[in-house]
């Protein structure tokens, strides 16, 4: 058995092999104990250095930034209110705000000496927004804000408390963006803006039965400098923080409740949570997209234009037509729209086409991966939660192919001229079994009027007769003794429901048009 060679020679027998205790293998002399211990220590240190040299113990994570290479953001934004103490480590801080209370946001120049010299003594524009924190609500932000606007007319989600602001100029708000404000400020001077948030987190919860958890918001600031054209479009910096908004004094109570809960926790549990900071520093983020908002003039109240003809079925009427009556041009809008039902077997592409045809363009991105069966499975409550009250109910009715009950139903039949064959014939049998003379059976068409006007009735009759409206000059109703009474709105409004008329056409000798007579 060989021990530790090259530890030295034995002082007694000059042998060179030792065991682990330092005893000479030849004479068992103990004089080499110190030599072996020294050698063991050197081997251990050598082994430790070899182990630490393995890749697993090397700091090779390229994602860890080097302090010398880190880039300093040009600005820093500070919300002057405390963060919640009930936030775990490695989670984003959350700050509680009171509804309508003014909060200071300091705009600080964070550049080091010599950094971004082109910003020296320059004026920049900042846009402050209150947006949703949850990604699900971000996709339908416009619909959620429109629903809030419907319930809170003439109110804004975000405002500036101008008398308290310092160092800002040209504060502006846009009527189309209720959750955004903008202003200018000089980066070389002290600047603070005081903002007020008027919406509360529980206003956007799906079901409001009391005690529900409110949705979190974000306050985001985007700062821009001027381009070569003098417009503030060149992005410089963006930062945001997470907030929750409570009714007046509710944020103070929530902060106190969180602090008391943390005081009851053990020291070991407290180590898992962040301390409460006196101010909230906004963290860097990507800029808010410019096309995040839909034009409210086209989205709040959906409209149906006459440029698209793919909405109409084979028997549908045009949505806008003109014809001459009493030498005046009259435009007939489409008051009654027929929804083409969505099939459960419709593909995702078919669903997108259906949404566009039925004026739900703003939700096409939201339902990108929905098939026909997926969309039809959504309940009324689901659609209201996703699309808001107005569009949610409209989409639900469209999916269920629900139409508005007509105000007046009229049955019309085209009069058969002499010499023409009737549409249907019925042969009568005499008592002796012989066939009698044929009797004509006239087929009537049902016209459903949403507006009890002469214009709408004329338009629907022209559709049944396949006669262009421009060729119809006058419409009369045959009265007593065969007189012709000019059709008017008052006359139509006094028609009994399910009235029956035979329509005859008379050629106008003075033009290429026709006169219609209701008998």
Structure, explained:
The protein has 519 residues and is of the alpha+beta class. It folds into four domains: 1-54, no CATH class; 75-284, Sandwich (Immunoglobulin-like), CATH 2.60.40; 339-399, Transcription Factor, Ets-1 (DNA polymerase, domain 1), CATH 1.10.150.50; 408-518, no CATH class. It has helices at 33-52, 135-139, 141-151, 250-264, 267-270, 296-299, 348-357, 372-376, 380-387, 389-399, 454-465, 489-493; strands spanning 75-79, 94-98, 102-109, 123-132, 158-160, 168-174, 177-186, 191-197, 217-226, 232-246, 280-281, 283-284, 320-325, 328-333, 408-414, 424-429, 435-441, 445-449, 472-478, 484-486, 499-507, 514-518. The strands form five sheets. Strands 2, 4, 6, 7, 9, 10 and 12 form a seven-stranded mixed beta sheet that branches. Strand 13 (320-325) and strand 14 (328-333) form a beta hairpin. Helix 9 packs across helix 10. The model is unreliable at 1-7, 54-69 and 292-339 (pLDDT under 50). Belongs to the grh/CP2 family. CP2 subfamily. Its main location: nucleus. Residues 249-275 are annotated as: Disordered. InterPro entries: CP2, GRHL1/CP2_C, SAM/pointed_sf, SAM_3, TF_CP2-like. One of its GO terms (molecular function) is DNA-binding transcription activator activity, RNA polymerase II-specific.
Question: What's this, in brief?
Answer:
With 519 residues, the protein is of the alpha+beta class. It contains twelve helices and 22 strands. The chain folds into four domains: 1-54, no CATH class; 75-284, Immunoglobulin-like; 339-399, Transcription Factor, Ets-1 (DNA polymerase, domain 1); 408-518, no CATH class.
């Amino acid at each position: 058995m060989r021990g530790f060679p090259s530890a030295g020679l034995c002082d007694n027998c000059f042998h060179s092999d030792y065991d682990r205790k330092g005893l000479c293998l030849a004479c068992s002399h103990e004089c080499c104990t110190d030599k072996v211990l020294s050698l063991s220590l050197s081997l251990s240190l050598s082994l430790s250095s070899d182990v630490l040299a393995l890749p697993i113990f090397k700091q090779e994570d390229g994602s860890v930034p080097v302090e010398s290479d880190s880039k300093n953001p040009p600005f820093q934004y500070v919300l002057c209110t405390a963060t919640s103490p009930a936030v775990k480590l490695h989670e984003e801080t959350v700050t509680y705000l009171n509804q309508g209370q003014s909060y200071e946001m300091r705009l600080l120049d964070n550049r080091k000496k010599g950094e971004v010299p082109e910003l020296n003594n320059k004026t920049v524009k900042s846009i402050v927004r209150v947006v949703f924190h949850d990604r699900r609500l971000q996709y339908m932000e416009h619909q959620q804000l429109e629903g809030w606007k419907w319930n809170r007319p003439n109110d804004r989600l975000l405002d500036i408390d101008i008398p308290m602001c310092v160092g800002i100029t040209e504060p502006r708000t846009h009527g189309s963006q209720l959750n955004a404000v903008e202003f200018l400020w000089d980066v070389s001077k002290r600047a603070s803006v005081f903002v007020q948030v008027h919406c509360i987190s529980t206003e956007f919860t799906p079901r409001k039965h009391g005690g529900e958890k409110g949705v979190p918001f974000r306050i985001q600031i985007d700062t821009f400098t001027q381009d070569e054209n003098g417009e503030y479009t060149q992005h410089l910096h963006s930062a945001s923080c997470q907030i929750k908004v409570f009714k007046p004094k509710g944020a103070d109570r929530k902060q106190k409740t969180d602090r008391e809960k943390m005081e009851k926790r053990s020291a070991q549990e407290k180590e898992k949570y962040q301390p409460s900071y006196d101010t909230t520093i906004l963290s860097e983020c990507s800029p808010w997209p410019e096309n995040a908002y839909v034009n409210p003039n086209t989205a709040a109240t959906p409209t149906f234009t006459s440029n698209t003809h793919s909405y109409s079925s084979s028997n549908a009427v045009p949505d806008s037509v003109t014809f001459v009556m009493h030498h005046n041009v009259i435009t007939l809008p489409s008051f009654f729209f027929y929804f083409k039902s969505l099939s459960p077997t419709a593909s995702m592409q078919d669903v997108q086409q259906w949404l566009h045809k039925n004026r739900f363009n703003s939700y096409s991105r939201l339902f990108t991966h929905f098939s026909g069966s997926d969309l039809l499975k959504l309940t009324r409550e689901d659609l209201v939660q996703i699309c808001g009250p107005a569009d949610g109910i409209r989409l639900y009715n469209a999916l269920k192919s629900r139409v508005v009950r007509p105000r007046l139903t009229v049955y019309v039949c085209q009069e058969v001229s002499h010499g023409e064959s009737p549409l249907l014939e019925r042969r009568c049998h005499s008592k002796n079994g012989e066939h009698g003379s044929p009797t004509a059976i006239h087929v009537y068409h049902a016209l459903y009027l949403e507006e009890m006007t002469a214009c709408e009735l004329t338009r629907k009759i022209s559709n049944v007769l396949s006669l262009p409206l421009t060729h119809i000059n006058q419409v009369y109703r045959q009265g007593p003794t065969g007189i012709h009474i000019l059709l008017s709105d008052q006359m139509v409004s006094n028609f009994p429901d399910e009235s029956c008329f035979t329509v005859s056409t008379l050629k106008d000798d003075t033009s290429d048009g026709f006169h219609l007579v209701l008998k």
